[in-house]
TrEMBL record:
Molecular-function annotations in GO: protein histidine kinase activity
Catalytic activity entry: ATP + protein L-histidine = ADP + protein N-phospho-L-histidine
Keyword match Membrane: yes
PANTHER family on file: SENSOR HISTIDINE KINASE TRCS, SENSOR HISTIDINE KINASE YKOH
InterPro entries associated with the record: HAMP_dom (IPR003660), HATPase_C_sf (IPR036890), HATPase_dom (IPR003594), His_kinase_dom (IPR005467), Nitrate/nitrite_sensing (IPR013587), TCS_sensor_his_kinase (IPR050428)
Annotated protein name in UniProt: histidine kinase
Primary enzyme class: transferase
Compartments where located: Membrane
Xref: Pfam families: HATPase_c, NIT
Gene Ontology CC terms: plasma membrane
EC number(s) per entry: 2.7.13.3
Domain of life (superkingdom): Bacteria
Family matches, as PROSITE patterns: HAMP (PS50885), HIS_KIN (PS50109)
Length: 672
């Protein structure tokens, strides 16, 4: 009876399985938490970086736009007046614009590295538009453009600035934040406000204002007034204060009166009484410049205040996102750790119960069940229900698992006991049939010997020899039954026999013995107790080689002495086998399985099974491998313990003598 030992590796495997059940989702949760925390923190940090970058970019673009607006106005004055003083003022303005751009270029170029594709595209478009400024200036200097075209070109460049501002604000606030929208509206109002100033300044420098210029001025004035009035309720407190200061400023009121005067000038009535468009401007240039000079700083402060509010809101949003992400991540982490600790403790309690179930199950499987099967195999009666213990582990899920184990073990034990009883019965049947056949075949062989000794007719003797081979072959088949049943054959030899005679005896036990050629045989003897089994083993291999070799191909049998003892090689000229088939066959030859229907394939090879049993009985090594002729080569290594040194010296050349020259001593020298 075997004693069940609690396997620490199995216990560790159970604990590891349960631990993985807890740790895998827990680790996955922690990884997901880490990824989400990293993503959230990275996004928040990226937003703070974008706020800082956007703030710097907006400040730089504001300075550049201010200088461009000034240059636009000076260009209009120069194209209108054409004086040297206007040209000098324009050149000074251009120098200030270039100096400001050179100073602020690095901060604007930083926007090109933004992760916002729209922002980088608009920043690149601004630099492309800026590249066309020298050509615009050259056309102005050469008189190749007029005031209206120049105004449009400068406005297009400033529009590129506005588009970059638009992208920066959208990057910080998105499309749904009113702060960002209000900033963009104020920037557009400021642009149209200064554009109206430039248009009127150029017209006043030229001394006349045409119909299209008047219409354009009307649109610009109405547009910036509408924006300022519409955005008033949405302004922040600092911006609303600047908005109120602007509306209550005497200079702003005066500016609106001057604009109205320009827009409402009456037509000119000629001598014939027909009305014509009045191109005269009823506004003094110095008065207009004074009003603009007082109000423009207020407009700039208004835009700056709202921009600062929007940037502060974006910065606060980024800081809140970081704080929310950190606090939320800590709360989730603590909750996850608490859940993991609780799950591990629950798993440890469950592991203890599983350890006990595992131990008790192994006790039954490793000790009690094999003992029952062994007793059943000896013919004793076994009560499975009474002799197998019942596993009791409560009424929960684990208890139901134990109940299922109880049912499965009893079913398996009953099946195993029944199988052992069937196998024992089959073995007894095999032995009974085999021993009866052996008795009959031995009597037939003795009768054949008597008839052969008295027969003188060569033809009759040849037929008798043929019948002798068939009966000998039948005796080997009867021996197979004994071997399959685990018993020894009835044939015995007391004295050693030359290996050559053993090979000839093995060859004589097959039907097509004429196709077998003994090429060489080692000068050695085989001990008496192994003669019958080795003869049987080699006969099975030779018959297999003849069966798988095409008729009339020959099968060669060689034998020689080696360091391990002696080797016998049987070579056929068949088709051979695949590498997988060789591996499977050699595995069975090395470790013969129990004879059971389940161990056999769809095409059982009983000869291979018999060879494996006989080889294991005497410590003989048998291997199959490809032969040089394309078929299979069976190599049998006989150990020194089976050999005698009675016939030493060089290997014996057997010539090509067929197996019918087997001596009577070889065939009938057995003692039953």
């Amino acid at each position: 009876m075997t004693t069940c030992k609690h396997n620490p590796v199995g216990r560790s495997a159970i604990r590891g399985q349960l631990t993985r059940m807890v740790l895998i989702p827990s680790v996955s949760f922690l990884l997901l938490w880490a990824l989400l925390t990293a993503a959230g923190t990275t996004g928040a940090l990226r937003l703070t970086s974008s706020v800082q970058q956007g703030k710097a970019g907006l400040a730089a673009l504001d300075l550049i736009a201010a200088e461009l607006r000034t240059e636009r106005e000076l260009t209009q004055v120069f194209l209108g007046a054409g004086s040297a003083a206007a040209q000098d003022a324009l050149l000074d303005g251009r120098e200030r614009t270039d100096a400001t751009f050179a100073r602020e270029r690095e901060r604007v170029e930083a926007l090109l590295d933004s992760d916002d594709t729209g922002l980088t595209e608009r920043a690149r478009a601004f630099f492309d538009a800026w590249g066309g400024l020298p050509d615009l200036r050259k056309k102005v200097d050469n008189g190749e453009t007029d005031r209206e075209a120049a105004l449009q070109d400068y406005t297009a460049l400033l529009s590129a600035v506005l588009l970059v501002n638009d992208a920066v604000v959208a990057r910080l606030h998105g499309d749904s934040r009113p702060d960002g929208f209000t900033v963009l509206e104020l920037m557009r109002a400021q642009d149209r406000y200064t554009q109206a100033d430039a248009l009127l300044s150029g017209a006043m420098a030229a001394g006349a204002m045409g119909y299209s210029e008047t219409a354009h001025f009307t649109y610009l004035t109405a547009s910036y007034r509408d924006i300022l009035n519409r955005t008033g309720p949405d302004l922040s407190e600092p911006a609303r204060a600047e908005h109120q200061a602007l509306n209550q400023s005497p200079s702003w009121i005066r500016l609106q009166d001057l604009s109205l005067r320009v827009l409402s000038r009456p037509p000119v009535i000629d001598a014939s009484g027909e009305a014509e468009f009045n191109s005269e401007i009823p506004v003094d240039a110095e008065e207009w410049d004074r009003a603009m000079g007082d109000t423009e700083p207020v407009v700039q402060r208004l835009v700056a205040a709202q921009t600062e509010t929007a940037l502060d809101a974006a910065w606060s949003s980024a800081v809140r996102a970081i704080a929310f992400n950190v606090v939320g991540s800590l709360i989730i982490l603590l909750a996850g750790i608490a859940a993991i600790v609780y799950a591990l403790r629950s798993a440890r309690r469950l592991t203890g119960r599983l350890h006990r179930l595992h131990t008790e199950t192994l006790e039954v499987a490793d000790s009690r069940l094999p003992e029952l099967v062994a007793r059943a195999g000896t013919g004793l009666r076994v009560d499975v229900t009474a002799e197998l213990p019942t596993l009791r582990h409560g009424q929960d899920e684990l208890g139901r698992v134990a109940d299922a184990f109880n049912t499965a073990q009893r079913t398996a034990a009953a099946a195993a006991v029944r199988q052992a009883e069937i196998r024992e019965g089959a073995n007894r049947a095999f032995l009974g049939i085999a021993y009866r056949n052996q008795t009959l075949i031995q009597r037939q062989l003795r009768l054949l010997d008597e008839i052969e000794s008295a027969e003188d007719n060569p033809d009759s003797l040849r037929r008798l020899l043929r019948l002798d081979h068939l009966v000998t072959r039948g005796r080997r088949y009867a021996d197979n039954l004994l071997i399959l049943a685990g018993a020894a054959t009835a044939r015995r030899w007391k004295d050693p026999m030359p290996l050559l005679d053993v090979l000839r005896a093995a060859t004589s036990e097959i039907e097509d013995y004429e196709r077998v050629r003994l090429r060489s045989a080692a000068r050695a003897g085989v001990r008496g107790h192994a003669v019958a089994d080795l003869t049987h083993l080699i006969a099975e291999l030779v018959e297999n080689a003849v069966h798988f070799s095409p008729d009339p191909a020959q099968v060669d049998v060689h034998s020689r002495r080696v360091r391990a003892g002696a080797v016998v090689e049987v070579t056929d000229r068949g088709l051979g086998m695949s590498a997988e088939q060789y591996a499977e066959a050699n595995g069975r030859l090395a470790e013969p399985p129990e004879f059971d229907v389940m161990t056999l394939s769809d095409e059982p090879r009983l000869g291979l099974f018999v060879v494996a049993r006989l080889a294991a009985r005497h410590g003989v090594t048998v291997r199959l491998e490809p032969s040089p002729y394309g078929g299979a080569l069976a190599r049998v290594v006989l150990p020194h313990s089976l050999l005698t040194e009675g016939a030493s010296g060089a290997e014996e050349d057997t010539g090509t003598r067929p197996a019918e020259q087997e001596t009577a001593a070889v065939r009938n020298g057995a003692t039953s």
